[in-house]
Amino acid sequence: IRNKDLFLLLLAVLIWGCGWYAVIVYLTIYVMQYLGFTTTQAGIAGAVPMVIGMLVALPIGALSDKLGRKKISIALLIMMVFGAIIFSFVKPGVSLPVLMIFLTILMLPLTGFGVCGNAWAKDLFPKGKTAQFAGLSLVFIVTVPMIIGSNLGSYVIAHYGTPAIIDGKAGFAPTPLLFWVAAVAVVLCVAILWGG
Q1: Across the chain, what does the average pLDDT equal?
Q2: What distance in Å separates the CA atoms of residue 105 and residue 102, rounded to the nearest whole number?
Q3: How far is it, in rounded angstroms, from Cα 12 to Cα 171?
């Protein structure tokens, strides 16, 4: 079919996003409720991967230009799988510097894939139709995954979370299982891209 490679990429990213948004939406709550950090500590820890991500975004873009978008994207996705699994083993009581390290391991491949994956999609847009396909890609990359992912995360937490008081209300705190859900989604994403 026409634009097969582009739609395979968008399908893969949609599956990736469904798993990843299940984590991202609840990551701060996880760090506070499960790992036991304060709001301030969680904010500080979360800022570190963002800063490092901005610093490495340019080199990753240059590397994908040299070695190819597909190779670098798949490598980053595989790193993402390991990052999610590794982070799931972080236990309550770790120090703030250790949390920063593991959050960076978790988040850095995400930043890199954002740069590389977007460039790859733009390379595949049909000539003269960049605007139309850029709008369509947002549905696959953001809109649908955010809706499905947040609900998937909510379902996992409601059924497999631990009881907790969140913002003064009884609820459930996320558990490490959430990161395994994301890892499985990313593995499916890799399988599609590898075979495509």
Answers
A1: 89
A2: 5
A3: 33
